[in-house]
Amino acid sequence: MNELTHTLVRLDDVGLTLADPADDLRGRTVLDLNGDEVGKVDGLLIDEDEQRVRFMEVGSGGFLGLGEKKRLIPVDAITRVDDESVHISTDRDRVAGGPVYDPDVVPERHYLEEVYGYYDAPPFWGPGYFYPGWPR
């Protein structure tokens, strides 16, 4: 099965908002487990059915937006959030080697399975999945 039973959408592309504006991670710096900068949160992918954030879209590299690569990082990789930053459980080299994300293409199940597997996180559609609460 290659299709999800849930629809993932970019928060910027739909008329939804987060219940608590403090949970909006867009624009925050992503820091790895060593405190090194990974990139910026450019967007959030939400599960439209359950209205939960599932992935951060993180942009890194490039200059003035040129050559920047986008990657999805599951919210399951978040260890801490503060006013300026989102801290994740892996290092930036690992993120840099992860699957590249194309925001113009709707992610299919096999791609999302690859992302979850890369970050050693269970997929949200799997049995026994527990939402980590970042953001709420």
Automatic annotation (TrEMBL):
Q: Where is the PRC-barrel domain?
A: 22-93
Which Gene Ontology BP terms does the record give?
A: photosynthesis, light reaction
What are the GO cellular component annotations? Answer: plasma membrane light-harvesting complex
Domain of life of the organism in this record?
Answer: Bacteria
InterPro entries of this UniProt entry?
Bac_photo_RC_H_C, PRC-brl_dom, PRC_barrel-like_sf
Signal peptide from the UniProt entry: none
UniProt protein name: Sporulation protein YlmC with PRC-barrel domain
Q: Which organism is it from?
A: Kribbella steppae
Lineage of the species this protein comes from: Bacteria, Bacillati, Actinomycetota, Actinomycetes, Propionibacteriales
